[in-house]
Structures are given as C-alpha cells and as structure tokens.
Amino acid sequence: MSVDATELHAGPHDDEPHEGGLNNRLNWLRAGVLGANDGIVSTAGIVMGVAGATTDRGSILIAGVAGLTAGALSMGAGEYVSVSTQRDSELALLDKERRELVEEPQDELEELAGIYVGKGLSEDLALQVAEQLTAHDALAAHAEAELGIDPDDITSPWNAAFASTLAFTLGALLPLLTISLVVADARVWVTVVAVTLALALTGWASAAFGYGASRPAVVRNVVGGLFAMGVTYGIGSVLGTHIG
Fold it and tell me: Does residue 2 belong to any structural domain of this protein?
C-alpha cells in the first residue's frame, strides 16, 4: 500500500491521542483495579469462612470489618513501598544520565545514534536525529531511548497507594454489606452472585486497561474468586462444627 507523502502531517492519530502523564494514570488505574479485585476476593473469603462457621450476623460483620481495615492498610502500604522503590530507581538512573550528558556528551550522542541505527535508521540519519533531539531536550531524549523513562512522568507512590487503598475498601464493602444485610437463609448465595458479578467486572476492566482479551481475564478472575470462597466456606463449616 503506497502513501502519498504530500498528504502526511506530523501529529498523533485522531483516535489515539498521546497525552502527557500516561504512565502515572496507568499506574493508579492498575493499582485501583487490582486493589478492588483483592478487596472483593479477600473480604468475601473472610466473611464466607465465618458464615460457614456461624450464622451470627455480628460475628460475620466484625470479621469482615477487621479484614477490610487490615487489607486496605496493607494494600496501601504495599503499593507505596513498591512504587517508591521503582521511583527511587528511576530518579537514580536519571541522575546518572544527567552526569553522563555533562561529562561525556560526545559518547552519549554516539550512544543515542547507535540506538536509532539499531532500530533501522541509517547512520547519517541516526546522527542527525540524535543531534536534533539532544539539542531540543537532551535528558528526555536519552532517558526515553536508553532507559524507557519519561522524566516528566515519574511514577507517584502516593497516587498508587491512595488508589489501591480506596479501591480495596470499595471492593471489600460489596461482600461485607451483602452478607451482613441479606437474611440468613439467602446470604451465602446472594453474596456468591454479587461477588461473581463484581469479579467479572474487575476482570474485564483489567483486560481493558492492559489491552488484553477480556474473556480469559474474566474467567480467571471469577474462577479464582469462587475457589477462594468455596475453600474458606468449607474450612469455616468444618471448624464451626468441631470447635463450636
């Protein structure tokens, strides 16, 4: 298929805009989806396990609230530590690149040109591209090509921690409120249905954000959640029978 060069215009595709801050947005979206999914599964497992051992609404509610609180704090702290480590590494690499650009500008220029040669450009064109990009923003050009880092879009641990904590809490509230508010005779099955639908939604969302196939993601999510609830309910039933 031939393309008329006179009709070409530099710029993003109309249906695929390229906006700044994409890394941070994807980071907190990922943390949010995973947090909601963990909140649903872990809290559903806890309340189902207790429901297997007792029909007392108060005991189920206390266990669920305790699991929600501990899980939300754990998720937030875990995301903060993980993303902080990633951020520290990115900042350290950027500092190293700044020093090299000051101390070894010629070597850095040749290195950048070599990267573009490896991507298919001729050596002369690669040198021209490297020189122009370096003149425009040396750090950004080298960081993106060599490190895959955007200096203006460093990951934020606070965004990830907040998104994860909030999402876990919202996800955990679904099984907690469902099993607490529904009458004893129907609470288990109503909770299973509610959790299944919620896991299908988070599975679809995780696939959508990652541009993956939605069906396998939904199936994995739902099957994993049902397995967790089934195991904990069974354990709760056995322990409730023998200990109670």
Answer: no
Range of the domain at 204: 23-234
> Does residue 190 belong to any structural domain of this protein?
yes
- 96-139 pLDDT, tens digit per residue, is 888 988 888 888 888 888 888 888 888 889 888 888 988 888 88
List phi, psi (to 5°) of 188: -65, -50
Number of domains observed in the structure of the chain: 1
Amino acid at 230: G
Whether the Cβ atoms of residue 23 and residue 160 lie closer than 8 Å to each other = no
For 146-164, write each residue's pLDDT tens digit.
888 888 778 788 888 888 8
Q: Is the dihedral of CA 84, 88, 93, 99 positive or negative?
A: positive
Tell me the DSSP string of the chain: ----GGG---S-BTTB---TTHHHHHHHHHHHHHHHHHHHHHHHHHHHHHHHH---HHHHHHHHHHHHHHHHHHHHHHHHHHHHHHHHHHHHHHHHHHHHHHH-HHHHHHHHHHHHHHTT--HHHHHHHHHHHHHHHHHHHHIIIII---TT----HHHHHHHHHHHHHHHHHHHHHHHHHS-TTTHHHHHHHHHHHHHHHHHHHHHHHTT--HHHHHHHHHHHHHHHHHHHHHHHHHHHHHH-
Classify residue 7: in a domain, yes or no.
no
State the average pLDDT over residues 167-176.
93
Query: CA–CA separation, 52 vs 229, rounded Å?
Result: 10
Per the CB < 8 A criterion, the answer to whether 134 and 37 are in contact is no
Residue 11 placed within a domain: no
